[in-house]
Amino acid sequence: MSFFRELYRQQKFVLELSRKDFRSRYLGSYLGIIWAFIQPTITILLFWFVFQVGFKAMPVDNFPFILWLAAAMIPWNFFADSLLQSTNSIVENSYLVKKIVFRVSALPLVKIYSSLMVHLFFIVFLFIIFIIYGFYPTIYSLQLIYYLVATVLLTLGLSWITSSLTVFLKDVGQIVAMLLQFGFWLTPIFYSLKIVPEKYQFWMKLNPMYYIVEGYRDAFIYHEWFWEHKFLTLNFWSITFIVLSLGLYLFKKLKPHFADVL
Question: Domain residues for 233?
Fold first, then answer.
C-alpha cells in the first residue's frame, strides 16, 4: 500500500510524462497525433466491411454488427496498445533509471496513460455511433469507469512483468506481440461465445480480457451490471491481484540491476 501511495503522489509528474510521450510518438509526421486515431478507426471499419458487407454478418442479439464489434474492439485496442508500449518503457527511458528520486515503476504507467488518451476519444466515438443508430446512453454506461480502472490495473501488473524482463531479454517485446495476436482471436471480439462448443466456453471465460470486452458490451448493449456476473468478477480480480503481486515482486527484485544492464 505504501508503494501505491508513493505512485499516487507522483501522478502529476506521470501525467506530464504521458502527455510528452503521446506527442513524441507522432512527432515529425504530417498528420501528427491524428495517426493515433486513424489506425484503430480503419481497423474497426475494415472488420465491419469484411464481416458485414462481405460475409453478410447478421445482427448479433438484435444489435447491428458494427456496434457489437466496436464495443469489444475498442477496449481490446486499448489493452493491446498499452501493453505493447509499456513493455519497452524502461528501455526507452533508460536515462530516468539512474535518477534516484524517480520511481522507475511509474514508467509503464506513463505509457498506459498515453494510450488512455486515445481510448477516451474512442469511448466518445462509441457513444456517437450508438446515438446515430438510435441507442442512447443509460445508467449502465457509468460502469465504464469501473472497467477502465480494471483494465489499467491488469495492464499495469502485466507491464511490470514484461518491462522488467525486456531489460534483460530483448525478445520479450516480440513475444508479447505474438501472444496478443493469439489473445485477440481467443477473445470473443468479432464472434459470439455462443458459437463456441460448450466444453470450451468455461476456459475462454477465464481469460481476463473476456471480462473486459463483455463488460463494455454490458454497458452499451446488454445493460447488465458487473456484480451480476459473480464468477467472472471473482475470477478477473483474482487474476489481476496475482498479476499485480507477481509484477511488483519481480520488478522490485530486478530493479537494482537495471542501471548496470542499460
Answer: 2-261
